[in-house]
Structure formats: structure tokens, C-alpha cells
Amino acid sequence: MTPHISVVVPMYNEQDVLPLFVQRLRPVLDGLGVAYEVVAVDDGSADQTPVLLQRFLREWPQLRVVRLRANSGHQAAISAGLSNARGDWIATIDADLQDPPEVLGEMLTVGEAQQADVVYGVRTDRSTDSAFKRSTARGFYTLMRAIGGSGLRMDAGDFRLMSRATVDAVNALPEHHRVLRLVIPTLGFPEAEVGYRRDHRAAGTSKYPLHKMLKLTLDSVTGFSLAPLRLATWFGMGGFVLAAALLAYAVISKIAGNPISGWTSTVVIVAGFAALQLLCLGILGEYVGRIYATQQARPTYYVAYDSLLAAPPERRPVADEPAAPARATADVPGPRG
Ligand code: UDP
Ligand code: MG
After folding, report:
1. Membrane-crossing residues (predicted)?
2. Which of 44, 63, 118, 289 has its CA 20 to 30 A from that of 6?
């Protein structure tokens, strides 16, 4: 039977929070009164997460575990969950209880009542995040709005409910390193929102160190906007105007009888423009790199284990349902041509 709702949970080294998470999620889902599945995507955890998941698997029939071969990152883990989830509705939620599972029921009600394809969880209060997290998040959204337009929702992260049609559309996108919170609004499907209060991480530590945040920002900027490429054009125009002004100044000084001497000014100008050129080249390189990665069409993750395929036949999907692919799957549909 197709589950009415699939709940996709990316988790990386979440042994501390996992028991608490299961304890809170399960009663909520059992209480919905509909068929559901939980797709726990173990993003290559190196701690006890896979062991705990195996234990929960035995006592929770609706749980399904998809383990990735290596740590592939939050977005790739969600993508893996989305391409394996079978529900009519698919929710994504973090494992650390910052997104309260109790809100899932409300999301489902709102999605069905308003016939929305996407129901965003919108943070009404971030006071529980650290000052650093809040300021980096604010910087991220301000930057993205500045270059990408106002369609972006402030403070909607990856806690959301999506219809089957939305997830099919996302799964069909060929884009690599996609940032789902930016990609999904651009689909333009009917949307709704549910406010919630973002809690403290219930246990364990953040799995988002600075370098992962920077990567997310870079993926977001290059995946969402061509504005940085135009920087080179603006720099070039500015440089031209500046050079013309300097030339005029030099000629006038010469005519006035005091030619400019100076090594410093020459070196500063040459070095300054060389740096700007390198910056522009670097920006160009980011985009070329994305084209390269898309061209190679390498999967952003590999599935090492799927409990559904390891399960006895009665727990597998029935024949007329599309079975999950047995082998490694990409969040891109193979090499296209
Ligand atoms: N996560 C993941 N792979 C990673 C990093 C994080 O699957 O490489 C998961 C993590 O287990 C959690 C969610 O993504 O369920 C959000 O991570 P975290 O709570 O550490 O991020 P923060 O809330 O600090 O931004
Ligand atoms: Mg968190």
C-alpha cells in the first residue's frame, strides 16, 4: 500500500539525539491515523547511528533505513530520501528536534485543505539559535534575496511538506548540488505555510561546520543567480572610467609642467586590477565547474543499503508500484543525451 505520508529524515552522526527523536516522532505519526513511512537517510554516519537504526527497524514497521556510502551532505541526503520516498505527501525534517514533529499533522491538514503543493515550515522565532547561527543565516538570506529576487522566503529552511507532484518535479531536475530551499520555490507550485518555533538541538552538536555553510552558500549563489558573472562587466566599466580619469589627470599635470612621477601609483593600479581579474576568473570558474559537474552527471550520493530491499517480500512495494532502484541512484537521471 502506498503510504499517505513519507517523512524523510537526513541524519549524520546523530546517535545522541536519535532515541529522543524516535520517541517524539512515532506517537505523532501513529496519531495521524493514516498509512505512513519514515525514510531515515543515514548520511554515512561514523558513530552508533546505523546500529541504533537497525534496532529501531525491528520494532517500528513503518521505519525504512537508507544508508549512503559516504557522508554526502545534508542536501544530498534529503535528495536521496526524496527519490526513495513513496508517499502521496512527503515531509522533510531534521533529526535534531529543532523542527518539532508535532507540526507535521498541521502541515498535512493545511496542505490538504488548501490544496497546496508545498507547505513551508516558517520559523516564527529563532531565539534558540546561537547568535552566530542567526547572523550567518540572516546574511545568507539577505545575500540570496539581493541577487536572486524576493521570491525567496526568509526563514523557511528544509522543514516542509510536499505533494507527490512536487517531489516528482524535484527528482526530475538534472541540477547537481541543488539547494532545495531555493529550488522548490522556483517551481512556482501552489504553496502555503505553517509557523513554528525553532527549538534547541535536543542533543549532540551541529553537523554544519563553517566549511559546510560556505559550500551551501556557494552552491546557492551559483545555482540561483547569474549576477556574480556580471560583476566582471561592472568592474571592467568602472576600471575603464577610472583609467580615463587618471589619463586625463596625467596629461593635464604634464601640460601644467609637473609630470607625475611615481612607482607606487603604477604598482597599486596594476596589482589592484590583476586582483580583480583573478576574482572574476574565480567566479567564472565556479560556474564552469558546475557545468562540468552536470556534464559528468556523477551521482552526488550512492546508496549502500536500503532496508526495504533487504526486507521480507510482504514488506516490499507491490508489483504495480515502482520499486526503488536496487543499485546506486543519482539525484540526476543518468547521463542524458
Ligand atoms: N546532516 C546530514 N549530513 C550532513 C550534515 C547534517 O544528513 O553532512 C543532517 C543532520 O543530521 C540533521 C540535519 O542534517 O538532521 C541538519 O543538521 P544540523 O542540525 O547539524 O544543522 P544546523 O541545525 O546546526 O544548521
Ligand atoms: Mg539542527
Report:
1. 231-252, 264-288
2. 44
